[in-house]
Write a structure and sequence with these properties.
Strand content: 5-15%
Strand order of the largest sheet: 3-2-1-4-7-5-8
CATH superfamily of the largest domain: Spore Coat Polysaccharide Biosynthesis Protein SpsA, Chain A
Radius of gyration: 26 Å
Bound molecules: guanosine-5'-diphosphate, magnesium ion
Number of helices: 11
CATH class of the largest domain: Alpha Beta
Oligomer: single chain
Structural class: alpha/beta
């Protein structure tokens, strides 16, 4: 085991959106600055021209502590603020880890240490979770607020399909810069609180290793909640959109598979017609269909998933899986050709696709494209 103190600490940037948080922001910055004294830590407040003078408090603080940064913009919602803030942390502040949290002390600054520790132990994202064993929401939270939070979480898990995570709407997370780059945060279009599930959806899809750490979510003592009806409407629409997007991907994937069958059998027939021996024509046709499937899935089905970082390892795995597919399909063809020497070769070539498809699906979904597995 490496001693934690011997490992250079990553550059962590806390990205904290604020709207009318003047009563909280200086207190929060003071707490963070003392809890995280290292030079490698920075604090980015993303304020949307709060009329209560939040930004002035931040500027005041930044004079004393150069690790504090302020990013200002027009108010377009929590999600829009996060997209700007996270992009700035990655592009201009050199963040290697981003911590997102609220400014109202609902998230205990000290808990970020637990999240960062999980990242140091290999997770790509650690979520401060209210809904796993050991986590809780404020005892004083109203029934309405509890229902809203539980309901939102239920929709995110059951409709949007984010079942692997228990607290999908949590706004307290530590995420590695590599994962954030892979999912390309700038492409997230939601404006409001739905940002949390949109971000999570992308993280899960990208195969990030996601873990959850229990937290106690304290109700704010100063200021008011900014959760509005627009956020609720967008949230509702987003969970359904994510579900449809899932179907769309599945449909595209199926169409690509079908086109692969045509490429395989078509080129097999063509090769036979050109006088190529069937035992040579078979693997060539299989390989051609593997290549066409890969290109179509890469540039069409999964066009929005960047192939960087872990994507390369995925490419390697994909190739190994394809090799297995090729071997299995070809072995089936050769075996069937020996058992049924009189059958039409194209039919036997077609039969070879069946075990290969099953094996291909299982290996790709449980190995190559395995989604992140949150644990607590
Ligand atoms: N920049 C920015 N911050 C926002 C906006 N809406 C909410 N926030 C901040 O997001 C955090 C969570 O909001 P809050 O009102 O506490 O939501 P609640 O905890 O769900 O009631 C707080 O730090 C807010 O100041 C917004 O439109 N723009
Ligand atoms: Mg709050």
């Amino acid at each position: 085991m490496k001693d934690a103190s011997q490992v250079t600490a990553p550059r962590v940037c806390f990205v904290i959106p604020t709207y009318n948080e003047a009563p909280n922001v200086s207190l929060l910055l003071a707490r963070l600055a003392s809890d995280y004294p290292g030079e490698e830590t920075s604090f980015l407040i993303v304020d949307d021209e709060s009329p209560d003078g939040t930004a002035d408090r931040v500027r005041e603080f930044a004079k004393r502590d150069s690790r504090v940064h302020l990013l200002e913009g027009k108010r377009r919602g929590l999600g829009a603020a996060y997209v700007r803030g996270i992009s700035h942390a990655l592009d201009s502040l050199g963040a290697e880890v981003v911590v997102q949290m609220d400014a109202d002390f609902s998230h205990d600054p000290a808990d970020a240490k637990k999240l960062l520790a999980r990242l140091a132990n290999g997770a790509d994202a650690a979520i401060g979770s209210r809904y796993i064993s050991g986590g809780a929401v404020d005892r004083d939270w109203s029934v309405g607020r509890r229902l809203l939070s539980r309901g939102g979480n239920y929709l995110a898990r059951r409709i949007a399909g984010l079942v692997t995570v228990h607290d999908c709407t949590s706004g307290f997370k530590a995420i590695s810069a590599a994962s954030l780059r892979e999912i390309d945060v700038k492409r997230i279009r939601v404006q409001g609180y739905a940002f949390q599930i949109a971000l999570l959806h992308r993280l899960i899809e990208s195969g990030a290793r996601i873990v959850e750490e229990p937290i106690y979510f304290r109700d704010r003592e100063r200021g008011q909640t900014k959760l509005g009806i627009r956020d609720l409407i967008e949230f509702f629409y987003s969970v359904w959109w994510m579900r449809v997007a899932g179907y769309k991907t599945f449909l595209k994937f199926s169409l690509v598979g079908l086109s692969g069958v045509l490429v395989n059998l078509g080129s097999f027939q063509l090769a036979l017609g050109l006088g190529v021996h069937k035992f040579l024509a078979s693997p060539i046709a299989i390989e051609l269909s593997i290549i066409s499937n890969f290109l179509l899935n890469n540039y069409w089905t999964f066009a929005d998933r960047a192939m960087t970082g872990r994507g390369r390892i995925r490419g390697l795995k994909y190739n190994l899986v394809s090799l297995t597919t090729l071997a299995l399909s070809y072995a089936t063809f050769v075996l069937l050709s020996m058992l049924f020497p009189d059958a039409a070769p194209v039919v036997l070539q077609g039969c070879g696709i069946i075990p290969a498809t099953i094996c291909n699906y299982l290996l790709n979904s449980y190995w190559t494209f395995r989604a992140g597995e949150p644990e607590s």
